[in-house]
Amino acid sequence: MPTIPATDNLVEVENVNFAYDSRQILEGVSLDIRRGQVVAIMGLSGCGKTTLLRLIGGALLPTRGEVRVDGKVMARLSHEERFALRRRMGMLFQFGALFTDMSCYDNVAFQMREHTDLPREMIDDLVLMKLQAVGLRGAHQLMPSALSGGMARRVALARTIALDPMLIMYDEPFAGLDPVSMGVIGQLIRRLNDALGATSIIVTHDVAEALGLVDYVYIMSAGVILTQGTPDELRASDKPFVRQFVHGETDGPMPFHYPAEDYASDLRAREA
Amino acid sequence: MMKRKALDLWVGLFVAMGLGALLFLAMKVGNLASFTAAETYLVKANFDNIGGLKKRAPVKSAGVVVGRVENIAFDTESYEASVVLAIDKRYGFPKDTSAKILTAGLLGEQYVGLTAGGDPVKLKDGDRLKITQSAVVLENLISQFLFSKAADGSKDSK
Amino acid sequence: MTAVTGFLENLGARAIGAVNRLGFASRFLLLTLRNSGMCLSRFSLVAREIYFAGVLSLIIILVSGLFVGMVLGLQGYDTLQRYGSSSALGVLVALSLVRELGPVVAGLLFASRAGSAITAEIGLMKATEQLAAMEMMAVDPIARVIAPRFWAGVISMPLLAAMFSGMGVFGGYLVGVRLIGVDEGSFWSQMQAAVDFKEDILNGVIKSVVFGIAVSWIAVFEGYDAPPTAEGVSGATTRTVVTASLSILALDFMLTAFMFRGA
C-alpha cells in the first residue's frame, strides 16, 4: 500500500509519560511512524490522542520519555529550533481553526507571508494551487463564516499543506462532518500525503473511515497503546477488544458510529 | 487590496484627528501659544504681602501679559515675600519700574502689574524692582475703613 | 466556629488566587513587551488594530464628549452666575475636561467599547484553536495577535481622550457662548490664562496613556486567559469591563493625588 519506500522513522515516541498537574494522561507510550506512511492513532474520546499530537508538535513536553521528530529530540530544542522544525509540520485542527478575520485566500497565504519573502504573484499562484488541490479555488474570496463545516475543513487542509510540510497531523479530521465530506476529506488526506511525499498522522475515533485509508494503526485506551498493526491485521485479529473496536459497529451490543459507517461507504461507492 | 487602503486612510485620519485635538488643547485651550517658546529674563521683587498670588500667575503691564511669576519664596532676612518674575525678552522695562499685586475683578485671580518708570537704563536679568506695592488684603481694608469711620465719628461729636 | 474558619479559608483562597493571577498577568505583560518587535517591523499589524480599537470608537467618543461638554456648560453657568463670575465658564469647562473627565470618561468608554471587543476576539480565537493553530504554524500568537492589539490600545487611548476633551470644550463653547451668551473673548482668554500646558494638559495626557496601558493590558490578558468555552469568553468580556473601569477610577485617584497636590 505505501507508495513511497518506507525505510526510516520520521517520528519516534519512546516510553512517554505525560500528566496535567496530577492527572496522568499518557503512560509509557511508544510508537514509531515511518516516512511516507499514513498512520492512524485510534481510540475512544478522552484517551490522550490529542495530547499525543501536541507532544509530537512540541506544544507540550513529556514528563518522562522522549519524542523525536526527524531525529531531533523535541525537549532539547530551543524555542527557535522548535519553531524552525514546526515550519516543516502541518496540523489540521479539529474544527479547522481557520482565522475568522481573514478570507480563505489570506488563511492559506498566512504562512507564506509570515515565513517567506516570496513575491506577490508567486504567493498568488501557490495559494490558488493549494486551494485547487482541495477543490475550493472558486471560494478563495469567501470568509470562513460563509463556509460549511466540510468546506472549512478543506480550506484548513489547504492552509496546513501551504508550505509542503514533511509531517501532517490531523486532529479528528472527520469529527462533525457529513458522510460525503468525510469521504472527501479521507481521500484528500491519502492523496495529499502521497503527492507531497509527506508523512501523516491521523488521530480519530472514526474506525471505519480511517481503516480504509491508512497504512498502519495504533489503538489507544486510557493513556496506553493497546495494540498496533496494519488495517488487514487488525481486521483479522481475534483479540476481543480489537474485534469490539474494529467490528464494533456490527458485532457489539454498543455499536460504534453505526449509522455513519454504512451510509458513508455506500455513498462513496456510488460516487466512484 | 482596496479594503487595505481604506483602512490605512481611516487610521491616518484618526491619528491626525487625535493629534489635531491635542494641538487644539495646547494652543487654544492652554497657554502654550502665548508663552513657553519665548525667551525670558528674570527680575526679582520683594513684597510685604503677596496675598493669594500663585506661581505661573500672569505679569501684566497696561493690561498686556508680558510674563509669568516664576517662583515665590520667603526671604528670611527682610521677612518679606521674594517673588521672581520671568519677563518676555521682547519687552524691555526701565530700571525704576514698579510692581503691584492686583486682583482681576473682585474675586478673580491675582496677578502682578508693572508700571514703567522714566529711567533710560533698562532692566537686566537678575535686577531687583525697588518699588513694590503689596496685595490688597480685604480684612486689612475693612479694618482700616472701620477705624477711619470711628475716627471721623469722634471728631464730629466734638 | 466552623463558619468563621470557613470564611477565613475562603478569604485566604481568594487572596492567594488574586495574587497568583496578578503575577501571571504581570508575566504576560512582560512577555508581550518582549515580543513587540514585530509591531515595529510590521506596523501595518498595529494600524489594523488601531482601526478596530480607535477608529470604531470615534463616534461614541465624539458624541459623548460633545454632550458632556454641553452639560458642563449648562451646569457650570448655573453655578458660576450665582457668584457673578460666569465669564470663568471656559476655565471650568476646560479644566474639568482636560484634567479629569477627558481621560476618565474616554477611558471608561474605551474599556467598554474596545476593551471588551479585544477580549472577546482573543478569547474566541483561543476557543476555536486559532491561537494553537498559529503556534503550530511557527508563528508566535503573542507577537502576532496580542502585541499589536495591546499597542493599538495604548496608542489609541490618548488620542481618543484628547478628542473627547477637544469636543467637550467645543460643546461647552456652543452652550456657553452661542446659546447662553457668555462673552466669547473672556471665555477663551480666561481659559487660556488658567489652563497650563504642563500642569493640566500634559498631566491629562499622561493619565490617558496610563489608562490606555491598563485597559489594553487587562483586555488582552483576560482574552488570552479566558476558558476556551462560550461561557468562558463571555465571562472574560464582562470581567474586562468591570476590572478595567475600576482600575481607571483607582488609578485616576492615585495620579490626581500625585499630580495636582501642589496646585
How would you describe the overall organization of this protein?
The complex is a heterotrimer of chains A (272), B (158) and C (263). Helix content of chain A is 39%, strand content 24%. With 272 residues, chain A is α/β, with parallel strands linked by helices. The longest helix of chain A has 18 residues. Chain A is globular, with a radius of gyration of 19 Å. With 158 residues, chain B is an alpha/beta fold. In chain B, strands 7-1-4-3-2-6-5-8 form an 8-stranded mixed sheet, with no helix packed on it. Chain C has one domain. Chain C contains 10 helices and no strands. The longest helix of chain C has 40 residues. The model of chain C has no long low-confidence stretch (mean pLDDT 91). Chains in contact: A-C, B-C. The interface between B and C is medium-sized, with 31 and 35 residues.
What key phrases describe this protein's structure?
heterotrimer; A: 272 residues; alpha/beta; Rossmann fold; six-stranded mixed sheet; four-stranded antiparallel sheet; 10 helices; 10 strands; 39% helix; 24% strand; globular; disordered N terminus; B: 158 residues; 2 domains; eight-stranded mixed sheet; 2 helices; 8 strands; 32% strand
